[in-house]
Design a protein that fits this description.
Elements (H helix, E strand, L loop, with lengths): L8 H5 L3 H17 L2 H15 L6 H17 L4 H11 L5 H9 L1 H8 L2 H17 L4 H6 L1 H7 L2 H14 L4 H8 L4 H10 L3 E2 H16 L4 E5 L12 E3 L2 E5 L1 E2 L17 H18 L11 H22 L3 H6 L13 H13 L8 H11 L8 H14 L23 H5 L5 H9 L4 E4 L2 H7 L11 E4 L5 E2 L4 E2 H4 L9 E7 L4 E12 L6 H10 L1 H14 L3 E8 L4 E2 L1 H12 L9 E7 L3 E8 L15 H19 L3 E8 L5 E7 L7 H8 L9 H12 L6 E8 L11 H17 L2 E7 L8 H5 L4 E3 L6 H13 L1
Parallel strand pairs: 2-4, 6-7, 11-17, 15-16, 15-18, 18-19, 19-20
Antiparallel strand pairs: 1-5, 3-4, 8-9, 10-11, 12-14, 13-14, 16-17
Helix pairs in contact: 2-4, 3-4, 3-5, 4-6, 4-7, 5-8, 7-10, 8-11, 11-13, 14-15, 15-16, 16-18, 16-20, 18-19, 19-20, 26-28, 26-33, 28-33, 30-31
Length: 784
C-alpha cells in the first residue's frame, strides 16, 4: 500500500515551514526506508524536537539525517535517538543537539549495528554529564575518531579525557579537539589496526566464494568492557565478530615481520572457523552430566573436527590457522590451559611432534576415527581424555584462565546449541522487522481485532491495559490461550566500581505476573506455626494504634479535665496545695510508616535446609506469611515483592502484594506459588522496589530484603562488581529517605553484608529454621 504525505497532515501542520519544505523534498526517500510504523515515529519525533523550542536547525537536520541512520542500522533506533535528544535538552545547547543529530548517520555507518549505536549514545550521555564543554569539539572530529577507534576504544578515550580534565574547561576543549598531547597519546594507545566496518563487504564476498553459500556477519563491541575484547560467537546462525582486530604478533613486540598476521587475515580465519561450525554441525551436543573440564576438552576436539573437515576441502586454511596458534612449547605444562592449547595445535598440525603422553593420546584417538561427520566423536574423545587428565599432577581446571589462546577461535556456545544451518532463520535474525506492540482501548479490541489468538510471529500485537473477559466462558483470553504477561521494561543504571561511573540504562527489569499456588499450603503454614502466632498475639495487639487517645492531668491541653479541676478546688477549700495539672489533651496515635518486603527468589532458595526436608524457599514463604498476617492486623501499609535475574537484560520482578491491595486469598495463593530460579542481581531489584516504596506518602519508609546469598548473576564474573552496585543502591535509597534492612540466611554473610547495608542495618540468621519466628519479631522490634 502506498504511503502519502497527505496522510500525516495534522503532524505536518505542527512543524515549522522550513522543516515542512525539507520533509516534502525528502519524503520519497523516507517512505522507501521506513515502514508505516517507522514513518509515524519519524514524524512524531520531529514534532517533539520542534516543541523543545531550541535551535531551528535541529528539526531540519533530524529530518535530513534520520533516513540515513535507518538505512545503515534500521529504524528501531529512531525512538532511542529522539528520547536521547529530549533527555539531553536540559543539559546542553540546541547547537550541540543539532551537531549530535548531524553526526548520527556517520556514527551509524561506522558502527554498523543498532546495539553498538545505542552504546554510542550512552557514551555521549556520560560525556555530557562529565565533560559537556568537550562535546562540540569531539563531534567535529568524530569521523577521525571512529575511523581509528572501536566503540570500546572511543569510550575509554572519552572517559580518560573526562576524568583528567574534570575541572579544567579549557583543557577539555583542547583534549576533545585533538589539540593536546594527551589526546593524541591516548588515541594512539586505543587505536586498532583493522576495523570490521572497513572489511565487512570483502568478508561477505570472500565467504560466499569459499563456501558457496551466504553467511551473516554482525559486529560486536569486542573491547567495550576491556582491551582484550570478546571472542567471536555464533547465535541464531549469525556470526558475531569483534568490531576491530589488531595485527597478531605471536612473539609479542619482537615478532619478525614475516610472522605478523594482518588484521584482515585474522578476520578471515575467524570467519572461516565459525563458518566451518555452521557447515559441519548437524545437531547440538548434550552437556548433561558433564563438568567444566570435560566441556572444555570436548570443545577443543570439536574445533579440531570442523577444522579437519574444512582443511579437507581447503588445504591452505591449515597454514592460516596454525599461524594464529601460540608457538609450540614442549616443556612441562603448568596448568590445564597449557595442555589444552598444545592439544589444539597438535590436532591441527599434520605431523605433530608434541611428546606429552596426554597430547599423544588425544592425537591417537582423533586420528583413529575414520568418519568425522558426526560431532558425537568429539563428545566421546573429550570424556575419555578428561578421565586421563584427572590422573595428571596439575592444578584444577579454571574456566577463566585455562582457555584456548588462538584469537580466531569462537567461544564454542554453538557446540551445545547449534543445529543444521538454517538460511531462513539467519535471515530472520539479521533482517526481520521487529514486532509492533500497541496499547488499545476495549472498543478497538472488540471491533477491529483481526485474530485474537495470533501466535508469536504476528506482525502487530495489541495490548489491553486490563484483562479481556469472554462472557460465555467467564475467563480472560490470556487464561484460555495466552501467556503470562510481561510488563514494559524498566531500565536502571548500574554502578561500576572499577571506573567509578554509572552505566546508564544498563539493567532491564521486567515485571511478571506471579503464579498461583494451592491455598492449602498457606493454611498448613498457619497450623504448623500456631505456637509462634500465640506468642506474637499480645505483642501485635500492643502495637495496634488506638486512634485518638485522651491524656488526663496535663498542665497544658485542649480542654478542662473536670475530675482533676474538682479535686484541685477541694484542695484549695481545705487549705492544701492544689495539683495544677487540670487540663486534658487528645493525642492521635498513628504509625506513619510504609514497609516493603523484598524476597530473594534465586535458584539457591530451592536448596534443602541442612538436616531437614524443607527448603529455604519454604522457610521464606512461612516467614512472609507470618509477617504479613502481623502487618495486616497492625494496620501498617505493606507490599510483598520478589526478584531473581537471568543476566542484566532480564531481571525478573514479581509483585505478590502492592500497598493498595488487601491481604487476601489471592495474595496468599501467589505466595504459595513462589519458586526459586536464576540468580541474584540485587542492586536493580532494590532500585525498582525503591521506586514503588518512594511513592508512598509516609514519613518513615522501610525496605526489608530477605536473601540467602550474596549478589551474583550469570553475566558477571567479578564477585565485587554487584556487591559495590548493591551498596550504591542502598546509598541511593537512603538519600531518598528509605531505610534498608537485610535479613541474610547465609551464615558467612558477615564478610560482605555489613559493607553493603551498613552497621546495624542487617541481621545474619545462623539458624535458618528459626526464620518464621525471627522475622516478625525483628520487624516489631525495629518499628515500635
Amino acid at each position: 500500500m502506498a504511503i502519502h504525505l497527505e496522510d500525516y497532515a495534522e503532524i505536518l501542520e505542527d512543524l515549522p515551514h522550513d522543516a515542512q519544505d525539507v520533509l516534502r523534498g525528502s519524503w520519497n526517500e523516507a517512505a522507501r526506508v521506513f515502514s508505516s510504523r517507522g514513518l509515524d515515529n519519524y514524524l512524531k519525533g520531529a514534532v517533539a524536537l520542534h516543541h523543545l523550542n531550541r535551535d531551528p536547525e535541529l528539526v531540519v537536520t533530524y529530518l535530513q539525517e534520520m533516513p540515513e541512520v535507518a538505512r545503515a542500522i534500521g529504524e528501531e533506533t529512531l525512538p532511542d535517538v529522539v528520547t536521547f535528544l529530549l533527555g539531553m535538552a536540559s543539559k546542553t545547547s540546541g547547537q550541540v543537539l543539532t551537531l549530535i543529530v548531524g553526526t548520527a548517520s556517520l556514527a551509524a555507518a561506522r558502527l554498523g549495528d543498532e546495539s553498538l549505536f545505542r552504546s554510542y549514545l550512552n557514551v555521549l550521555q556520560g560525556m555530557l554529564a562529565q565533560a559537556p564543554r568537550g562535546m562540540r569539539p569531539m563531534l567535529e572530529h568524530l569521523d577521525q575518531l571512529l575511523t581509528q577507534l572501536t566503540l570500546g576504544g572511543f569510550r575509554r578515550w572519552v572517559n580518560w579525557g573526562a576524568q583528567a580534565y574534570k575541572t579544567d574547561f579549557e583543557g577539555q576543549v583542547r583534549y576533545f579537539s585533538l589539540q593536546s598531547p594527551d589526546a593524541l597519546s591516548v588515541l594512539q594507545t586505543e587505536r586498532k589496526g583493522t576495523l570490521f566496518v572497513d572489511v565487512q563487504r570483502r568478508l561477505n564476498i570472500y565467504l560466499r566464494a569459499m563456501w558457496g553459500r551466504d553467511f551473516f556477519l554482525r559486529p560486536t563491541a569486542g573491547d567495550y568492557e576491556s582491551r582484550e575484547g570478546l571472542k567471536p560467537y555464533i547465535e541464531r546462525f549469525v556470526i558475531h565478530i569483534a568490531d576491530a582486530y589488531d595485527d597478531y604478533r605471536p612473539l609479542g613486540e619482537g615478532t619478525p615481520d614475516d610472522q605478523v598476521v594482518a588484521g584482515l587475515e585474522l578476520y578471515r580465519a575467524a570467519a572461516n572457523h565459525c563458518a566451518a561450525h555452521l557447515v559441519f554441525t548437524r545437531q547440538p551436543l548434550s552437556m548433561e552430566t558433564l563438568d567444566t573440564t570435560q566441556m572444555a576438552i570436548i570443545e577443543a576436539v570439536e574445533d579440531a573436527r570442523v577444522e579437519a573437515l574444512a582443511c579437507a576441502q581447503f588445504p591452505n586454511m591449515r597454514t592460516t590457522w596454525l599461524a594464529l596458534h601460540p608457538p609450540a612449547d614442549y616443556g612441562d605444562p603448568q596448568n590445564v590451559g597449557d595442555l589444552l592449547n598444545r592439544l589444539a595445535r597438535a590436532l591441527l598440525e599434520p605431523d605433530s611432534r608434541d611428546p606429552h603422553p596426554w597430547v599423544r593420546q588425544g592425537l591417537s584417538l582423533f586420528r583413529a576415527e575414520q568418519d568425522l561427520s558426526s560431532n558425537q566423536i568429539s563428545w566421546n574423545i573429550g570424556v575419555e581424555l578428561a578421565h586421563s587428565l584427572a590422573t595428571l599432577p596439575l592444578p584444577a581446571f579454571n574456566p577463566r584462565t585455562d582457555v584456548l589462546r588462538a584469537p580466531y577461535r569462537d567461544d564454542n556456545r554453538t557446540v551445545w546449541e547449534s543445529e543444521e544451518y538454517n538460511l531462513e532463520a539467519a535471515l530472520e535474525a539479521t533482517w526481520a522487522p521487529k514486532q509492533v506492540r500497541k496499547t488499545v482501548s476495549v472498543m478497538e479490541m472488540v471491533h477491529t481485532l483481526d485474530y485474537e489468538f495470533a501466535g508469536d510471529d504476528a506482525q502487530e500485537i495489541w495490548v489491553l491495559p486490563t484483562e479481556f473477559y469472554l462472557d460465555q466462558e467467564g475467563v480472560t483470553i490470556n487464561e484460555l490461550e495466552g501467556r503470562t504477561p510481561v510488563s514494559d521494561p524498566f531500565h536502571y543504571h548500574e554502578w561500576d566500581y572499577q571506573i567509578q561511573l554509572e552505566r546508564p540504562s544498563w539493567v532491564t527489569v521486567l515485571e511478571r505476573k506471579p503464579k498461583l499456588g494451592d491455598l492449602e499450603t498457606i493454611e498448613q503454614i498457619i497450623i504448623d506455626h500456631k505456637p509462634v502466632i500465640s506468642r506474637l498475639k499480645f505483642l501485635i495487639e500492643s502495637m495496634i494504634p488506638q486512634g485518638m487517645q485522651r491524656l488526663r492531668r496535663q498542665e497544658d491541653g485542649d480542654e478542662l479535665d473536670i475530675n482533676a479541676a474538682v479535686r484541685a478546688m477541694v484542695d484549695i477549700r481545705t487549705g492544701q496545695h492544689p495539683d495544677t495539672r487540670i487540663m486534658m489533651r487528645y493525642k492521635r496515635n498513628v504509625r506513619d510508616l510504609a514497609v516493603m518486603v523484598l524476597l530473594d527468589m534465586s535458584e539457591s532458595a530451592n536448596d534443602k535446609v541442612r538436616g531437614q526436608e524443607y527448603s529455604i524457599m519454604d522457610l521464606t514463604r512461612s516467614a512472609t506469611v507470618l509477617l504479613s498476617d502481623a502487618l495486616d492486623r497492625i494496620g501498617d501499609p505493606f507490599a510483598l515483592h520478589g526478584f531473581c535475574s537471568d543476566g542484566r537484560h532480564d531481571v525478573h520482578y514479581h509483585r505478590f502484594k502492592d500497598f493498595d491491595q488487601p491481604y487476601n486469598d489471592l495474595v496468599k495463593a501467589r505466595l504459595a506459588g513462589m519458586q526459586g530460579s536464576y540468580s541474584t542481581r540485587m542492586g536493580a531489584a532494590l532500585r525498582h522496589a525503591g521506586h514503588y516504596l518512594g511513592q508512598q506518602p509516609k514519613n518513615k519508609k522501610i525496605l526489608f530484603i530477605i536473601t540467602d546469598g550474596e549478589p551474583a548473576d550469570n553475566d558477571v564474573r567479578d564477585p565485587q562488581y554487584l556487591r559495590h552496585d548493591a551498596k550504591r543502591a542502598v546509598e541511593e535509597l537512603a538519600r531518598n529517605g528509605i531505610t534498608t534492612y537485610a535479613l541474610s540466611l547465609d551464615p558467612h554473610a558477615d564478610q560482605y553484608v555489613s559493607r553493603i547495608f551498613g552497621m546495624n542495618h542487617f541481621t545474619v540468621l545462623d539458624q535458618v529454621e528459626r526464620l518464621p519466628e525471627k522475622l516478625p519479631m525483628l520487624y516489631m522490634g525495629l518499628t515500635r
